[in-house]
Amino acid sequence: MFYYSHLADVGIEELTLAWNRCWQGYAYEVRYSAAQMQAWLEKCRIDLSHSTALRDSQRILGFALLALEDQMGWIAGTCIDPEFRGRQLFRPLLEDQLARAESLQLKGIQLEVLSHNHAAKSYEGIGFQKKRDLYVYRYHDGIPLACTNPGRGCSLRQANLSDYFQARHEAGFHPPWQRQEGYLRRYAALRAWLNAEGTAGILMPQESHVVLDAWTMAWEQAEKLISSVLSLSQGEFVLTNQPKDWLTAYLSRQGVNPSDIQYEMLYPMHPIQSANIE
């Protein structure tokens, strides 16, 4: 017999085992050690007392993890054990998660789902609304890109995080969940750059080619900013959750297509006009 419960009483070892087992076979199969799992839960601000577990008498068969920030929720992961997929358990799991979140008086709940994931239809069927596409890029040497000369990069100055996020806010950039200021600040070590005008910026972790954040206010800055990204990342980069903007337009014109597209979705709860994610 299946039943639902919260996850507050689940130890980190059991939760890690459930995570690694239930994510098997998905497009992005992420495995964690217990220490990595704990760090990820803290960075995402997962509220285990309002997250949902699908169980039988022996173990966790699936779960939905709910993160909380500024009166908004974010589904950080929903999955079912491979042995129990195809039994129409996904939608009831989501419904239980939304019911648990109802008491929190959230403005809404967000999530991202790959465009080719059949779960997107399940999310829509339960009331999630598609807000926009988010692009995932994995650029490496060999992909044609005209702006490979670092000398063409825009003049960037290293900036403190407060100046960086203030400039981004003034530029009108509306970040998805994993690029919100609070989320990004929870990375252990960050490097931020702004151009002289404060109209373009890049945020990266120390010693990594992952670009956590990149934005510009104008088309004419896009090539220079991508050149700077290539220089800082030593010729290759990963950029995820990028909304359609001047950077995506420039990369498209250069023949660099996203490796994946995600749908950013919103489940409206209490007053939806306050849930501004666009």
Automatic annotation (TrEMBL):
A GO molecular-function descriptor: acyltransferase activity, transferring groups other than amino-acyl groups
- Describe the location of the N-acetyltransferase domain by residue ranges: 10-150
Q: Which InterPro entries match?
A: Acyl_CoA_acyltransferase, GNAT_dom
Q: Which Pfam families match?
A: Acetyltransf_10
Entry-linked PROSITE patterns: GNAT
Instruction: Quote the protein name from its UniProt record.
Output: N-acetyltransferase domain-containing protein
Q: Which organism is it from?
A: bioreactor metagenome
